[in-house]
Design goal:
Number of strands: 13
Structural class: alpha+beta
CATH class of the largest domain: Alpha Beta
Number of domains: 2
Distance between the termini: 40 Å
Number of helices: 11
Shape: globular
Length: 363
């Protein structure tokens, strides 16, 4: 179970708390921190906070409690909304991790005001219950240890290829898809350019301009991909830290809260995975996964298109990393500033490669 949600909406507003529930979040978190709140009681509980959730790790399970927040692309304002979202998270993540996502469980209050996880009283919130996964078997951990094997890669390819072959094709026209790309690039570049720091401004604007020109020059190629059914309802946040090399491999933490974020080109999603492997120093692993997955689904992706999608993802990740600067202690600012620069360097490199390789029509 990982705890870093991408929140991947270009130009979205920052999360804002909603009106308080009748049972305060602080009391729920305090209850779920206690080992005796679980059945059977946990030996210990590790509580981790993300932008939009609290995650509680026990000996064998992970429990996710969503915060009562609202953004322009998600709404966790009410208990009922959080229940529906928990159920959607379980349903959607069972596509790639059926044995991991166990269900949506109520946090109920009894007549005396006490809380009980899975209790029969009035639900005051809901949690997603998951099997806890071995951290050392996550793909990012294996990359860090230099322990990724040929068998690991082949197993991931089998799972992803089967998923993409059966994934739902989305009801979007070629024109709307291209316009969405333009809009997302423009808003992401604008958001980065407006942020303070030497890494924003000119660099982000230049990268966004290259990507906009790519869309304008290759609208017909992008339209063909939509018409051929390559734009599907995917995972939406396919990163190494969401891939667990157990048997069979499990891919967790899809973006469940807004279907628009899961409507993407298969090549876009796989380019994102390759980009994140590259950032971790495992370019060959990412390239291998991209090549083998696209081959398995019989998709011949022009090299410039791979670089275009990788650059767009890197630009978006730069913006999301910049957002962390508003949320973390001053001591962590250099870490996140460095992450922004890292993503912008990746975005620039892939954007320039895409532009250089796409001077001729893509076939």
């Amino acid at each position: 179970m990982t705890t870093d949600s991408s929140g991947a909406e270009p130009g979205a507003d920052r999360a804002a708390p909603c009106a308080p529930d009748d049972y305060p979040l602080e009391a729920k978190v305090a209850h779920l921190r206690r080992p005796e709140s679980y059945t059977p009681p946990a030996a210990r509980v590790e509580a981790l906070e993300t932008h939009m959730s609290w995650v509680f790790l026990t000996d064998t399970h992970a429990w996710k409690l969503k915060k009562p927040v609202r953004r322009d692309f998600l709404d966790y304002a009410t208990v009922e909304a959080r229940r529906a979202n928990c159920e959607a998270e379980v349903r959607l993540n069972r596509r790639l991790a059926p044995a991991v996502y166990l269900g949506a469980v109520p946090l109920a209050v009894a007549a005396d005001g006490s809380l009980a996880l899975g209790g029969s009283g009035r639900p005051v919130d809901w949690l997603v219950q998951m099997q806890r996964l071995p951290r050392e078997r996550m793909l990012d951990a294996l990359i860090a240890a230099g322990a990724v094997t040929e068998a690991d890669l082949a197993a991931v390819v089998r799972v992803l290829a089967a998923f993409y072959r059966s994934a739902s094709r989305v009801p979007i026209s070629p024109g709307d898809y291209c316009e969405r790309l333009r809009s997302d690039i423009e808003s992401t570049g604008r958001a980065l350019a407006a942020l303070p720091g030497a890494w924003s401004g000119t660099a982000a604007s230049r990268i966004a301009a290259i990507l906009q020109r790519f869309v304008d020059d290759h609208t017909s190629t992008l339209a063909v991909r939509v018409s051929a059914g390559r734009v599907i309802e995917g995972h939406g946040d396919l990163r190494p830290e969401h891939v667990c090399l157990i048997e069979p491999p499990a891919v967790i933490d899809c973006l469940e809260f807004n279907e628009r974020f899961r409507w993407l080109d298969v090549a876009d999603e796989l380019a994102f995975l390759a980009l994140e492997c590259e950032r971790l120093g495992a370019t060959a692993v990412g390239e291998r996964l991209f090549a083998d997955c696209t081959a398995a689904v019989e998709d011949r992706v022009p090299a410039p298109l791979f670089d275009f999608y990788a650059a767009g993802r890197a630009l978006l990740r730069a913006k999301l990393a910049a957002w962390h600067l508003a949320d973390v202690p001053l001591a962590l600012h250099e870490k996140w500033s460095a992450r922004v620069r890292e993503y912008l360097e990746l975005a620039a490199r892939h954007a320039e490669t895409a532009a250089a390789g796409a001077r001729a029509p893509l076939v």
